[in-house]
Amino acid sequence: VIAVPLLNLMVPAGHALHVPTYTVTLMGKYLTLALLAVAVDLVWGYLGILTLGHAAFFALGGYAMGMYLMR
Hints:
With 71 residues, this protein is mainly α. It has one domain. It is 75% helix and 0% strand. The protein has helices at 3-10, 21-47, 53-70. The longest helix has 27 residues, at 21-47. It starts with a helix and ends with a helix. InterPro entries: LivM-like. The chain crosses the membrane at residues 53-70.
């Protein structure tokens, strides 16, 4: 996951394999949401336990990022 942005820096901007920065950040957001979905599915789907701990840490990170960006 970290290798994609680093490899993208080595490819010139006009090259066919160059991925725009917006697409890289969007894929990072998608992977983050997918990781949350898999974690909740494993805990709730297989164990039958509804846990709000994943959502609490996810919300706390979103709140902290929002406060950081508002400065």
